[in-house]
Amino acid sequence: MTVDYNTVFKRSIEDPNGFWGEVAESCHWYKRWDKVLDDSNKPFYRWFTGGEISTCYNALDLHIDNGRGDQAALIYDSPVTDTIKEYSYRELRDQVAGFAGVLASKGVSKGDRVLIYMPMIAETAIAVLACARIGAIHSVVFGGFAAKELAVRIDDATPKVVVSASCGIEVERVIPYKPLLDEAIRFSSHKPEVCIIFQRTMETAELIPGRDIDWAEAMVSARPHECVPMAATDPAYILYTSGTTGVPKGVVRDIGGHIVALKWSMKGVYDVNPGDVYWAASDIGWVVGHSYIVYAPLFQGCTTVLYEGKPVGTPDAGVFWRVISDHGVKTLFTAPTAFRAIKREDPSGELIGNYDLSRFKSLFLAGERTDPDTLKWAEAKLGVPVIDHWWQTETGWAIASNCMGLERLKVKEGSPTKPVPGWNLQVVDTDTKPVPVGEIGALVIQLPLPPGSLPTLWKNDEGYQKTYLDEFPGYYKTADAGYIDADGYVFVMSRTDDIINVSGHRLSTGGMEEVLADHPEVAEAAVLGVDDSLKGQVPVGFLVLNAGVTRDHGDIVKEVIKMVRERIGPVAAFKTAIVVQRLPKTRSGKILRGTIRKIANNQEYKTPATIDDPTILEEMTDALIKIGYASGKK
Ligand code: COA
Ligand code: AMP
To answer: What is the CA(492)–ligand 2 centre distance, in A?
Structure first.
């Protein structure tokens, strides 16, 4: 039976109290809320004030109490270590309760921060859920970030404890994590009291006596900890994301709204029921991993797959189909780049035929716009609905999607379909006036944001207002530009800031520019996201050197590439830079990034009227041709 999308959407906007209050009834509360939507301190809206609830209880214990204790809660599938391990709800709860006891024995309690820097292993989910069990605020940092980035997050979150592992595995390479962690703690002003290290068999980390403890040893004597009831409005976690500078923003998620919204999304957006197997092929270090590897599938009583590997090369482009077939996955969620990687290795989709995909019902893609080629290929080869859906770290769940649990709408290529219930999406101009249908403007969300989205930034209410609320009064700025067509379909076209998406990973070109500018021989630098057929976008750096520098340009380029890798991390995928005489600028000194990007992407461009010196564009084109970009179309 389908549910009419328009009716559900309209109700969610016109009667948020009724809509979300009803969803909240299906969750476990220690104390019922006083108010569903609390708008007493605008623009800081809160959800379920007065209510007391536990994230961990709703994710684990509730299902055991309801008879699902023996059902698989989590399947760890790691082709890079040749391991498949299943945890029932009871087993996972016991591990989580044990580790919660370890944290508590180290003095961690309600409101304390715990930073988690881990690879994709089951212990990462266990650590996250253990924090939720005792009301500690976790902050997971993606393993591909370098020590400096980790240090910035340690200083902002000021964790009492850091949880890490001896190493991660990138296809066949073992990446020791402990030296990175030690270096980060050397850099940081805040020093965590305790580091708990999970030793993996392929690498043994050296422990620092008095500070570091071994996960396995600590678990032997752990006393299981019960769930601690928390205020619905308390923070569940902090997740740092790229902002417009090198300083990341600490996105906060609150507890009650998070549980309610994610639970609704499992049925409403993904059409997934208790007992179904759900797989988000992402990383717990990203928001997709928080919401859809750990939390939402467990809130819904599903089995979640935690995958340590890549879409190709571990061992081949058939591995996604192998996982789907082995575990009976109903819904897969990943980034389009993963599908481009698979399509490149196995264009005819031959490997799909080797596996039984009969239980597979839908593919969801996010992180970047799904390009029509990838959409058509996936639809044709898999024969299931392929759903592009749009969201952000800040929103925590989808803003626009084809809601499979409501009514399945027609797919329009290049569109993530329509706003999801709860999201009052509008398109406005710079004066916050609605733009005509079909015209591009700023994509903004009328306040209040629905539950599960960010209530603020960590210890930075002012930054929250400045970054998201000030530019369009009464609205949240997504920093995406786009339009809504006559049928109400949303089209997300581009970011309005310097954020780029590389392999579905969000990065700030401003942050990379700050690193380049630190090179002693670089006078000025620009970094732009240029189109890439595999990664969506890749960063390309332009360097203007100080007068009188005679050193080999190739050496300087190598040095800046190394600097970005060491300061931001390999995940930045910063591999291309070029020395230029000068950068194209407006007469007021603004770098013409849009024009350079168009040249690099072989798009037609007009010489901007405000340009300081038009001849520079020819120089730019020549430089880009030298590094394999641009054809000089004008
Ligand atoms: N720890 C340490 N290093 C890491 C890392 C981690 N957790 N994750 C990535 N890296 C490294 C990679 O090894 C690579 O290093 P290299 O420059 O030495 O080769 C670099 O960071 C860039 O990684 P990535 O962008 O992932 O490129 P890739 O070539 O290894 O793989 C894809 C390309 C498309 C296969 C891969 O990015 C992918 O599977 N993407 C899926 C998208 C995804 O999960 N998005 C999250 C949001 S849904
Ligand atoms: P992140 O915070 O890493 O999830 O990145 C969020 C940004 O990724 C958004 O603001 C968009 O620019 C982009 N994005 C994510 N999903 C989509 C999508 N389905 N279509 C277009 N852009 C997307």
So the answer is: 9
